Amino acid sequence: MFYAILCYDSEAVTTSMSAEEDGALMDRLGAVQDKLARKRKLGPVARLMPTTAATTLRKGQGTLVVDGPFAETKEQLLGFYLVDCDSREEAVEIARDLAGAATHGTGAYEIRPLMTFKPTPEAQ
What values do phi and psi take at 85, rounded to 5? Predict the structure, then answer.
């Protein structure tokens, strides 16, 4: 089963890191990614640009497109991993490894199983 591991933290923390601190973080996360890739567990990984680069389409009375996400939270979605796991417990263990590599801030890792919405062309 595929699981999405969504990475949340305060952008104030992550955007205040120096280039060296950010590079060291990416190296530590890269080591976890390499381990998952060798086990053929790793799918797409994405690091999102800051929320200042976001655009939001809001539904309601018509649609409204606005700059920024305007999230009502202290933490922002920073990126995600797609992992292929045999169990929820395995996905939790992967999230623990990622959290151990990300030594900045407090943040959170949300683990959600994925349902197939539309199969990939290769699966058809």
Answer: -125, 150
Domain that holds residue 98: 2-116
Q: What one-character DSSP code corresponds to residue 65?
A: E
Q: Which two tokens stand for residue 7?
A: 């990475």
d(CA 24, CA 19): 9
Helices (H), 3-116: 11-15, 19-38, 88-101
Q: Which residues sit opposite 64 in a β-bridge?
A: 58
Instruction: Please report whether residue 121 resides in a domain.
Output: no
Domain count, the chain: 1
Integer-rounded Cα radius of gyration of the chain: 16
Would you call 63 helix, strand, or coil by DSSP? strand
φ and ψ of 21, to 5 deg: -65, -40
> Consecutive 10-residue runs of the chain (124 residues): their mean pLDDT?
91 90 93 95 91 75 62 75 93 90 80 77 57
Extract the tokens encoding 57.
Answer: 């389409």
Q: How is residue 32 written in tokens?
A: 């976890």
